[in-house]
Amino acid sequence: MATQKQKPLNCSPDLQFLLIVFMVVSSSLATSSSAATEAEALLNWKSSLDNTSLSLLSSWVGDNSSTCNWVGISCNNFGSINHINLTGSGLRGTLHTLSFSTFPNLISLNLSHNAFFGTIPPSLGSLSSLEILDLSQNNINGSIPDDFVMLGNLSILSFRKNQISGQIPQEMYKLSSLRVIDISINNITGSIPASIGNLSNLIVLDLHKNALSGSIPSSIGNLTRLKVLYLMYNQLSGAIPNEVGQLKFLTDLGLVNNKLNGTIPLGINNLVYLKNFWSSNNSLSGSIPGDICSGGLLEIFTVQNNQLTGPIPRSLRNCTSLTRLRLERNQLSGNISEELGIYPKLNYIDLSYNRLYGELSENWGKCQNLQGLKLSNNRISGRIPHLEGSELHVLDLSSNGLIGSIPKELGKLSSLFNLSLADNRLSGSVPLEIGMLSNLQYLNLGANNLTGLIPEQLDGCRKLLSLNLSRNRFRESIPLEMGSIQSLEILDLSHNLLMNRIPAQLGGLQKLEALNLSHNELLGSIPSSFDNMLSLTVVDISYNQLEGPLPNNKAFQEAPVGALGNNKGLCGNATGLNACPSITRGGKKSNKSTIFIIVLVLGIVVFVFVVVGVLYMICHTREPQNENQFEVWSLDGLLVYEDIVEATESFNSKHCVGVGGTASVYKAQLQTGRIVAVKKLHTLQDSGGEAILKAFESEIRTLAEIRHRNILKLYGFCAHPRHPLLLYEFIEGGSLENILTDENYASNFGWMERVNVVKDVANALSYMHHDCSRPIVHRDISSKNILLDLEYGAYVSDFGTARLLKPNASNWTTFAGTFGYSAPELAYTVEPNEKCDVYSFGVVALEVIVGKHPGDLISYFLSLSSTSTAQGLQLKDVLDQRLLPPNNQAAEKVIAVANLAFACLRTSPQSRPTMHQVSQELLF
Ligand SMILES: *[C@@H]1O[C@H](CO)[C@@H](O)[C@H](O)[C@H]1NC(C)=O
Ligand SMILES: *[C@@H]1O[C@H](CO)[C@@H](O)[C@H](O)[C@H]1NC(C)=O
Ligand SMILES: *[C@@H]1O[C@H](CO)[C@@H](O)[C@H](O)[C@H]1NC(C)=O
Ligand SMILES: *[C@@H]1O[C@H](CO)[C@@H](O)[C@H](O)[C@H]1NC(C)=O
Ligand SMILES: *[C@@H]1O[C@H](CO)[C@@H](O)[C@H](O)[C@H]1NC(C)=O
Ligand SMILES: *[C@@H]1O[C@H](CO)[C@@H](O)[C@H](O)[C@H]1NC(C)=O
Ligand SMILES: *[C@@H]1O[C@H](CO)[C@@H](O)[C@H](O)[C@H]1NC(C)=O
């Protein structure tokens, strides 16, 4: 037709007119017939998709409306489809039902952010005009088909975030128009083909997070237009090819987490546009190239966890563009006072665990944007310089050779949240100004030569979680003001010269989990206020002059011998101690003194190191070495999400420790070594789970702050769009339900242990109902969400999250709990309150002693409960028959549990006891 068009000059006007008519008619006939087949192909495909997809494509209908007006479709001037953009449309199905050969004019195909599954159809290769192909963020698997290399015009290719496996096709180099390749976050194996060097138009090559092995081909140096090269998180080995230095436009080079060895090639010095260089967690050796900042554009340089030696290069000294510098955990040496300058943009610098020496410069204080400065574990000497004016959040100078006193100007660093000066040779007293650091969460001044009193002003640090003042020479009393640092979870005052009595106010530290007062000169008895420290789990009070009864607190009563030993005269029901003289029954003096003698006679093996070790580990894991570790709140949670994905190998079933109707639970060891239970909510995916989580964010935050030894710690949640996650403490053991249904476990689960489990659950519920700023109702107590550790300690899980975990309940306010555990009044759609929990607790308590869900027995028991003697007899017949009947002492307690359970099961909520009353009753 093009030739016809040029010729009509010698035709008569009429003929010309006819020709034009002919041309218009024939061309419109041609396009409308191809448009019809395109429409047909799309409709066929639509009909193969999942039901929910259909409503999203409601504009795709087979009447006379033009395909070009359909959602996501656009056409060229001839009415033929040239762009398909269905990104983020919630579509689910495969690509095999789409007839690709029907779209000869298609230029771009964007199906990203959907739920397409299955393999990539080879017929995709027939899209001969295709320039842009984006299938990122789907669930596509299988390998990249060979026919794929027929897409000769392809310029941008993204398969990011799928489950594509197999190798990179050898013939990929034929796609010579490619400018962007993004196959990141898949499961590609094999090596990077050397022929990739032929893709001379490539600007972006992103292969990160795959399983690529072998070495980086030197032909990569032929990609002279490359700006971005991401190869991190693979298993690449060998050296970084020196040819990288030929990539003269390179701005971003990511090699993190591979097995690369050899030196960082000197060619890097030539990369004048280089902005970001990430190469941590490899085995690189040799020194850092001297001219790494030659272009003056370098912003991020991270090479931590390698074996680099030599000095920090001079080029970094005036590299004023730097924002982030991480050189920690290498073997770098040199004088730190000479190597570094003023960096106006620097935000975070970590030089820890090297062999740097010299003194700290005041220049650090002049880095206006510096938030993190970490220099621990080097050989730095001299005094701490004035750093006022900086925005520091984290200052870690621990394990060096610093001398002199702590400058009072540190009190002006009002953003500080982590300050560690531990393990130096600092002397003098702690400046009172430290108490002005109202954002401080971690303060470690341990292992220095500090003297004087512990400043009472420390109570100004209202957010303090961990305070370590151990191994110094602090004198006099523990200030009673310390009892008002309500946030405190870890307190270590050991190895000082502290005297006098322990202030009763310390007992008010409701969140305290670990307390070490050992190796001091403390006197008198332990205040009875310690009875109420419900979170306390680890204590060490050894090597003091303490006497009198141990507090009525599990942490003390179950402490190992070494943690209580070498005192003047402690007594109580704990290993290695003598029982206390019964004062209430009119204790006689003579009695007391014999008790003291017996106590002194006991030879005590000292397990202090064990306890100190445990404390150290707790403190250590809390240092945010990987910052953001538990900042699971907010959208920044992505970082942690990736960490979890890695730890669970993308939620691989081998890490799965439990699957329920609403969530799967995975055991994940994070990079810090901490083991957490990750609850992945699977039902939320289709019902706006992210939105639900967001809606409850403040509530979850509250829950995450709660610390009670019988409540499973919730660390936070991750409102990730695909998999909303809740992160919990990991308990080695199983659910109460599992233990009771397993014959082996159940027959070893003795009567006293069972009674204690009931007590633990009662304590947890009482705490949540009565001791929090406002009552928190569980809503779904059942044997499924009570976890037992290996010593049968009980942990109530999923507190307050029942609404999240069971979104199917039509209306949250009338949420019905688990069948068989929910209170009868819930049938009348009452808002669940504490009394509903009390009822469910009653069911669980009976379940524990009966050995299975009591079912119909509940009403049977209720009919008996008027005559308690008869009950004692008949109860015996329904107790768990897998155990011998309880002996006298245990029988009493089992009956008490049963009686309380009956009370809790009363039909009228008003006549049920409160959990506070229940837990008091169980204090036998
Ligand atoms: C594709 O569609 C999305 C949302 O409908 C839009 O934000 C995006 O700009 C489109 N992309 C192109 C290349 O048209
Ligand atoms: C990745 O591929 C390997 C080998 O093909 C396979 O063993 C592994 O399970 C895959 N991993 C995932 C997460 O698909
Ligand atoms: C890189 O390009 C040069 C010249 O264009 C060529 O001689 C060499 O073989 C290429 N190297 C590789 C590994 O492709
Ligand atoms: C690097 O590792 C390879 C094995 O992957 C080994 O053969 C080579 O000797 C190593 N090179 C250096 C410099 O350590
Ligand atoms: C760094 O200082 C050296 C001289 O000391 C100078 O040659 C170089 O240009 C400076 N670089 C930048 C980025 O300022
Ligand atoms: C601690 O300080 C005292 C003086 O206050 C000094 O005698 C002692 O040697 C110092 N100890 C250490 C380990 O620096
Ligand atoms: C002492 O504790 C043990 C176990 O912790 C317990 O069996 C025993 O009954 C307790 N004795 C007294 C008098 O409380």
UniProtKB/TrEMBL annotation:
Domain of life: Eukaryota
Signal peptide: 1-30
Record's catalysed reaction(s): L-seryl-[protein] + ATP = O-phospho-L-seryl-[protein] + ADP + H(+); L-threonyl-[protein] + ATP = O-phospho-L-threonyl-[protein] + ADP + H(+)
GO cellular component: plasma membrane
Enzyme Commission number(s) from the entry: 2.7.11.1
Protein keywords: ATP-binding, Cell wall, Glycoprotein, Kinase, Leucine-rich repeat, Membrane, Nucleotide-binding, Phosphoprotein, Receptor, Repeat, Secreted, Serine/threonine-protein kinase, Signal, Transferase, Transmembrane, Transmembrane helix
Matches recorded under InterPro entries: Kinase-like_dom_sf (IPR011009), Leu-rich_rpt (IPR001611), Leu-rich_rpt_typical-subtyp (IPR003591), LRR_dom_sf (IPR032675), LRR_N_plant-typ (IPR013210), Plant_RL_S/T_kinase (IPR051716), Prot_kinase_dom (IPR000719), Protein_kinase_ATP_BS (IPR017441)
Topology in membrane: Single-pass type I membrane protein
Gene Ontology terms for molecular function: ATP binding; protein serine/threonine kinase activity
Lineage start: Eukaryota, Viridiplantae, Streptophyta, Embryophyta, Tracheophyta
Binding positions (ATP): K680
Family: Belongs to the polygalacturonase-inhibiting protein family.
Residue ranges occupied by any Protein kinase domain in the UniProt entry: 651-924
Chief place of localization: membrane
The UniProt record lists the keyword Transmembrane helix: yes
One Pfam match: LRR_8
Protein's recorded name: non-specific serine/threonine protein kinase
Location in the cell: Cell membrane; Membrane; Secreted, Cell wall
Membrane-spanning ranges: 595-619
GO biological process: anatomical structure morphogenesis; plant organ development
EC primary class: transferase
